[in-house]
Each structure stands twice: as C-alpha cells, then as structure tokens.
Design brief:
about 400 residues, alpha/beta, Rossmann fold, 3 domains, 5-stranded parallel beta sheet, about 35% helix
Length: about 400
C-alpha cells in the first residue's frame, strides 16, 4: 500500500529510489495534494499522518519514528534477538578482521549502539578475487538495512547527495577515488558533524551528518590519495577465502545466524575504550596495508622530489637543506622533468607537511674539489620563500 505523509504544509510519498549500484534508497518524494486526491479520493487526506518538520536522529536500540512532532529520516530496523551461537558469522568476521578481530567486533558494536560516534574509514582491499569484500557489504546491509547504502564512485562524486547523506553507512564498492579532491572531501566528511544535502531542483539544506564510510577495492596501492600523516583510514588486506570457507550460500547462512549475532552485539562488553575522536588510536588501526597505500599514493612529482632531496643529503653530507619551490623546479629541469612552482609548493605542503618561510637562506648548489684534493661545497646566499628539509624526516619515510 502506498504511504504518504505531510511534513509541514507539504505532502510526500514514501518511495524506494533505485541507485546505479542496484541498491535502493528510501526517500520522500514531494507529491501534490491534487494528485493524491485524484488517485485516492479526498477522504484519504484525512488519514495522512502529519509532522511539523524533518529531523535525523540515529538510534538502533531505541528507535523513534516521531520525535516531538517531527519525522525522523533515520529508518527503523526489524531484527529478532536471540541468544545462541553463530559459528559461520564468527568465522567470516575473523576472515575479514584477522588479528584485529576484537577491534572489528568493537567497530560493529559502536555502529549499532553508538551510531553518532565518529569512526575511521574502513577499507577492504585485495587484488585477488573471492575474498569476501562484497559479501561483507551485503551482510552489513542485512544488519543495518535502510540505514546503509552501497554506492559507486559516481554516486559519491555527484553533487546530488540526497540518497546517502542521511545514512549511517556509506559503502563504495570497486572504489577508485584517485583525485586529490576526492580524498579531501572524504576526510572532511569522515569527521564532520553536519553537511549540506542537495537534490535536483532543490536548494541545499544543512543537516546533521553521522555517516561512516566503508571502501572496497581490488586496487591495493592507490585507490585513493592519502599522505603519510593520515590517521583516518583503517585498511585491511583480505586473503582469498579457503576452499573450505568458499560457500556459494554463505550470505544465506549468515542471514540465518543474524538473530544470534544481533543479540551478541547488543549485549557484549566493549574491549576498546574510547581514546580519540575516532574512538580508536592510530596505532590500533595501523596495518601494513595502510603503509602500502601511503607509498602507492605518492605522485610521480612527490617521488622525484623525495629522491632529489635524498641525493643532496648524501652529496653535501648535511642534516638540513633549504630550497624554494623555484630552486626545485630548476633542479628538476636539469633532469628534463617539467613542472611549475605552484605544483611543487602544493606537493611540499600536502605530502611533505612543510610550510615555507620568507627570508634569507643558504642553499647548497654544487660539490667540487680544491687544488689540493679537498672537497669543496659551493653555497649561495639567497632570498625567497624557502622550505626546510630535515634528513631525519626523509630517513623515516
């Protein structure tokens, strides 16, 4: 049966909007009063539920559709809770989270019990097939139902974001967000408490934001651009499911154990107390897969500058070097690498975490030998906006 509501002075039809991923998203479509009357008759209007406005307050254990006369856009889940064993689910989650299994259970518990808490961006990666990434997303969809959406890259990049900004979990399957603006947007959203929602033909509306991102990719090394200081990502490389674990009916088996797992999540004790604004510390969620992603995210220019500076630390045998972005452009030009000062400055600020200073500095430009065979380092005094490189920082990279 069609469901209609009146929010304020406007009528809406509750509908499931199809997404490009094949998923659907519950949405409210504006509906003219005259159209409802034509379809249902004038008496039908008297039975339509009326609300003063919208509100988005996430809660899984104590859900309320109406909060002080306002319509809650967060959706109710319909679960049964029963104490019991869930061996297939436990085995599957141990495959997903590996030696971080207890951390994974805490992550899922926080999602269910404390949906407004900020959490790291969970990334599941593997270049191999049959690792369970997509099954994990589909299983999470069973758990969180209408409060989770599985998107494609174009859904995330689109400025029309009404389909996902009110969701608890925003998953992006087969993700490839390899532009700097993608990663900046994702980082900002992962810790944001509010966001502007936009739909076609509708003005932007600022609303609360509590979404958690989960990214899945077959590209282990550079599906997104991140720098070495990044702490928002929890990257797990998944192994291939063993022959004994490969089960064509796995999702159905997990669905059969769901009521037992839901009881467990609802009642278990947390292992990890909250220590940061993203709950976990960077040490807790660090993995070798994150290290590989950081290395793979380095741009060609980033790598060229890194090697250039490392070579000069060896050449001049010093612990500190100072160059302007223009100096580096000139040095790169000697090796036929063409770039601009603005590009160099951007890399030094974003990837090297350096800030420039305006003033006089000494730059090392050449090494030569004196007539008696001693090494002579040629230095020049110069002025400009220079960056300071420390040998210890590059050695730690």
């Amino acid at each position: 049966m069609d469901e209609y509501v009146r929010i304020g002075v406007e009528y809406f039809k509750v509908a499931n909007r199809p997404l490009s991923s094949g998923d659907t998203s519950k949405t409210l479509l504006k509906w003219r009063q005259g159209a409802i009357t034509t379809d249902k008759g004038s008496e039908f209007l008297k039975n339509i539920k009326k609300y003063d406005g919208f509100v988005t307050i996430p809660s899984n254990d104590n859900y309320q559709k109406e909060i002080k006369g306002f319509y809650n856009k967060y959706e109710e889940t319909n679960h049964s809770f029963k104490k019991g064993l869930f061996p297939q689910t436990e085995n599957f989650l141990k495959h997903i989270f590996g030696d971080q299994y207890e951390l994974g259970l805490d992550y899922l518990t926080i999602l269910w019990r404390f949906p407004e808490e900020i959490l790291p961006i969970l990334c599941l990666v593997s270049s191999e097939r049959k690792t369970g990434k997509t099954t994990f997303l589909n299983w999470l969809k069973l758990v969180f139902q209408g409060n989770m959406t599985i998107n494609k890259n174009e859904d995330f990049r689109s400025r029309f974001n009404l389909d996902w900004t009110s969701k608890l979990i925003i998953a992006v399957d087969e993700v490839l967000l390899d532009r700097k603006e993608d990663s900046e947007r994702l980082k900002n959203l992962s810790t944001s408490r509010s966001y502007k929602t936009e739909a076609k033909g509708v003005d932007k509306i600022e609303d609360v934001f509590f979404g958690k991102f989960i990214l899945c990719s077959n590209n282990e090394n550079n599906f997104i651009v991140i720098d070495k200081q990044e702490i928002r990502y929890w990257v797990r490389k998944l192994p291939t499911l063993s022959d004994s674990d490969e089960n064509p009916n796995l999702l159905d088996d997990l669905r059969g154990e769901l009521k037992y797992f839901m009881h467990f999540i609802k009642t278990r004790e947390m292992v990890s107390p909250k220590k940061t604004r993203m709950w976990f510390t960077k040490e807790q969620v660090y993995t070798d897969a994150l290290g590989n992603l950081i290395q793979g995210s380095k741009t060609t220019l980033n790598k060229e500058i890194t090697e250039l500076i490392k070579d000069r630390f060896i050449l001049f045998d010093v612990d500190e070097l100072k160059y302007t972005s223009g100096d580096i452009v000139d040095i790169l030009g000697e090796t036929k690498i063409r770039t601009r000062k603005s590009e160099v400055a951007e890399v030094l600020r974003s990837s090297f975490s350096l800030e420039d200073k305006n003033g006089s500095y000494t730059k090392y430009v050449n090494v030569d030998y004196t007539n008696d065979g001693k090494i002579y380092v040629e230095k020049l005094s110069s002025k400009g906006r220079y960056f300071t490189f420390l040998k210890k920082d590059l050695e730690a990279d």
